[in-house]
TrEMBL record:
This is TPM domain-containing protein. It comes from Flavobacterium rhizosphaerae. It comes from the Bacteria. Keywords: Signal. The lineage of its organism: Bacteria, Pseudomonadati, Bacteroidota, Flavobacteriia, Flavobacteriales. Residues 1-20 form the signal peptide. Residues 41-162 form the TPM domain. Pfam families: TPM_phosphatase. InterPro entries: TPM_dom.
Amino acid sequence: MKDIYILLLLFFGISGIAQTNPQAATSAPDTEPLPEPTSIVTDYEHLYTPYQEEQLTDLMNRHHLETGIKIILVTINPLKTQKEHFEEIIIHAGDVLGADKKSIIIGISAGYHRIRIINGANVIPYLSDKKTNEIINAVFVPQFGENQYYQVTVNGINEIVRVIKEGNK
């Protein structure tokens, strides 16, 4: 009985230490937690100018009105986050910004050389994972190597929406 009590004490003691704030778990050591995202364009890596962020927001809002699909864009700064938390951060940002089954979350980290697009369940019939990977490899990856972050993001979003509209006919 004493052994069970010790195990329970250890279990609850250790689980009480676990972090419950997803942002705290995703920050790199010795850095402040990332601020909560407040816009459908959350540029933690500072890949875009304020004007470009505004243009991307307008583009994504127009596509949302046209298709009913919300697009959320998050860039991840490798100086402030750990690579293994890349996907966790973009999912968290999507959750905070109201992503649902009819949303697309685009996560980008130039520093980590990673792009991830997560399609909501109601998007997949129009934009499969296979087609999403084709867009990443054909549109995003080649131009990202040239550091054309804004233009490649615009091109990628436009291609995603083109495929959705085509599949929605």
